[in-house]
Each structure stands twice: as C-alpha cells, then as structure tokens.
Amino acid sequence: MILLPSKKDERSFIAYLEERFDVGHDIFHAYRIYAGPKGYLCIGPRIITESLRYRFLGVPIARMGKTIKPIQSFFTIFGNHVQKNSIALTKDQTLMYIQGNTQHLTAEQCLTVTSGAVMLTFQDMILGGGILQGNELKSLVPKAKRLDVKYL
Amino acid sequence: MTIIPPRFKECYAPLVADPEAFFASLLTPAPKAFRVNTLKTTTEHVKKRFALYGIGIHTVPWSPDVCIADNPSIGSTLEHALGHIYLQELTSMIPPLLVAPELAHAQFVLDACAAPGSKTTQLAALMQNRGTIVANDIDSNRVRALQFNLEKSGVCNTVVTHQDLRTVTGYAFDAIILDVPCSLEGTIRKDPIVLSHWSEQTIAQHAHLQKQLIVHAFDLLAENGTLVYSTCTFAPEENEAVVSELLTRRPAHLVPIALPGLVMRPGVTSWNGKTFDQRVAETRRIFPHDNNTGGFFVAQVKK
Fold first, then answer.
1. Reading across the β-sheet that carries A68-70, which strands appear in turn?
2. Is the pTM of this model over 0.90?
C-alpha cells in the first residue's frame, strides 16, 4: 500500500528546506513525496499504480522526528538547488568526510553558515551533507558508502 | 590458469567464423569500462577530472557517455564514490541504449530482472529521472544492492519490487528490459569460474525459464511497446530459441538493431539440428573478439 506523509509533515519539511537552504518550494514538482518506514520521507515517481506491491518506493531524503533531518540523498540529488549553508571543503577535509570522520573546520569556513545541517562541496562537486556544531562537522556519509578514495 | 573445457570448444566453434580468436579472447581480461552518470555530471567533466589523476579514458564510438579506462583503479576515484560514474561491463549498457528513443516519451518502464541496478540506473539517466521505472528482481538480497545503487546514483523515479515476474499482471509498460538469468558464458573474461560450472544441463534449465519469462514480459507490454530481451551467454538455446518461442506464441515483431561502431552478428536461424523462426536473424550477437567486450545477445521486440 502506498503511504503518503501527513500534510503537516510535508509542509514542515518544505518550509524547513526553504528556511535552511533557501531552496524553492517547487524542487520536487516532478516527483511525489511518500512516507517511508521509520519516519523517513522518500521522493519517488509522481505516477505509480496503487496496487503495486513495492519493496522500496523512490529514495529516502529526510527523517522526520522531533527535528527534521535531511539525509545524504537529499544533498546528492537536490544539492544543486541549495543556496545557503553550504561549505567548500579542502582536499584533506574531503577525504576525512568521505571516510565518515568527524572533523573541525576553520573559523573562516564557518563564517557564513549556522549550526545544523549543511551541504559540503569539493571544487565544483557536491559531496553530500553533514551536521555542523560550532566548527565541528559530522559526516552524513552512510557506512556502506564510505569508500577508500585514492584519486581526488 | 584458465582452461576452456573441450566440450565447450566443440559446442561453440561452429558459432563463430574465427574460433581461435574467439576462444583466445575468452582467456584475456575485459577492459575496465564505466558509464558516466548524466544525472550527476557530464562526460566532459569526468574526462577533465581523470586527466588530472593521470587516468586515460576514451569513449566508445556507440555512446558518448560510455568510457574505457586504461587504469583499473577507477573504483578508487572520488567520482566513483559519489556515483558520478557507474562501473559496468560494456555490453550490459546496450539494452537501455536500444530503447533510448522510446524512453524520451515513456511513462511506465519495467526493468524485469533489475538487480544490481546497472540497467535501471542507466534507464533513469536516459529518462532524466522522469516517468516511472519499476525495477523488479526475484532475489531478496540482490534487491538491497539494487536500492543501494539507485540511491548512490541519485535515481528517484523508481519503484523497487520483489516478485517472480511470472506473477506480475495487470500492467501495460511502454518499454521493458528483460535481461534474464542465464548461464553467463559471456562473462568468462570477468569471472573465469563460470567455466567450472558450465554444463549443457544448466543451459536447458535456464532456457526453460527464459521462455516463460519472455512470453510473460511480452504480455505486460502496452500496444506499440518495446521489449528488449538480452542475455550474457552464447548458447542459442537461451537466445534465438527463446525469441523463436515468443514469435511462435505471440504476435511479436522483431526490430532491426544497430549501434554505429559496434560490431554485431546476426542471430543464428538453426542450431543442433533445430530450425528457428527465420526472423531471429534480426537478433544480434556480440562476440568478445569483435569489440573487446564480454559476450552478449540482444533482441528488440515490438508489440
């Protein structure tokens, strides 16, 4: 059975993205937001057959709880719409980030961002998301996607 | 050291014009190939980045987004970690390319045996994440790998299902990719252990299932819909014989196949004393020694 999130959750999520990342409310216009397991919001195709017995519907992009937590796929799929709270990492920081390590950024890197979810970039590539507290950055790269990168 | 069983040689020597070159090619590793994920980047961008790494790449003549690398370490690049490239055997990229024109307008597409998601992610890229792809696989564990690759590749127009294709009913797909389970003879260059499991009995078992799958998949097509049937094996029992069965049982039409720059051979119309529907000559075989790829078979069918 296809599950949709409550209107309240959907509105909160869109409002959060606008406020936190200055993304337009229409970024999902080609898709539909679905309710996944464990409080996840998923983005999936607009048209599907109601009778479809699915295992996964679209991809999870956020988790709704006491707070809204955008997850890695949100940034890697929709990151090009993000207008603020984005940090450019150095090569060494990128390596740390990809391997899932927590690290401290320079004060200069944190000047234009506020604590909370942030998007990370390296040169002109979107790396994904992280959680910034002060100048401490926690990587949102899932364990399974932490690869040993030798070329960057 | 890999040794090709004498019975294998005896079986397939009549299938090719140059058996020596054919068998020799099976003993050499296939080139390291990848597809640029155009949902996330461009081929030009990847070329520039790889040039910085000192990794030489070149695109194949039959697709601007399909590349061969001169360095096997491409799995250690940032581009691979970020899902900007997808490591994939060259021939495995053929079925989605054949339906690319249809995908521009397709609303509902089925990848019938989808795991681990090479073709699904390619379909999504060709559709630019629009429309709806149903990615189905019967193997529960492989479905997880499929979802992992969809997420990594930034695919969000897909619904993953886990069903025996023969139980799926009530849909009308604009395009279907049916890359069936097979005896894997065409993957010997990648995984020579295939030869140690090779047997004519296995081929017969696969062929039995494949005939059921192709007829059922055809029934799931919308009017004017397109089905691409493919295997990575040489056995005519799993290829032309299966397509011939479909042509006998359903009003299917074969579409001529061509990818400029890729050498493909016509399907065989008879094998081991059995004669197939003569239209199977429109199907195509890709032999390893012709293009330095794996082995492959493909048929494009219209309803």
1. A31-35, A40-45, A59-64, A68-70
2. yes
